[in-house]
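Our consortium's second objective concerns turning raw sequence data into structural hypotheses that experimental partners can test. To show how far this objective has progressed, the report includes one record in full. It was chosen at random from the queue rather than selected for favorable results. The single chain below, 127 residues long, was entered without modification.
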Amino acid sequence: MPKRVFVSFDYDYDKTLKDFLIGQAKNPDSPFEVHDWSIKEASPDWKAKARARIRASDIVIVICGEHTDEAVGVAIELEITQEENIDYFLLNGYNGQTGRKPTTAKSSDKVYRWTWDHLKILVGGSR
């Protein structure tokens, strides 16, 4: 059964990257599925909604782009992920650049190169 993935990303800059990841999840050999659980509008209860969606996931993928270190929502989603003890990894969004970690990332968190083979391994739990 494919793992359910929650994708955390900078909505202002990296929405296209999330769409690419959703597309890859549709590959016939994909070990994961992505439900578009993005919270598109800020609301008083968005953190509770994010927590519920993260809890319903097997793993969280944090897409790291040029401005991820400034994305407050990504930092909060990663913090919730850590509090809920859900597996996660950081994925470099752009080839040839190093994506910036969210402010709540641990110093030991690596930013992994985005390839199809890496994704399959990382979602499978090998890090």
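The partners drew two points from this record. The longest helix spans residues 72-83. Strands lie at 3-8, 32-34, 59-64, 87-92, 111-112. Both points have been shared with the crystallography group to help prioritize constructs.
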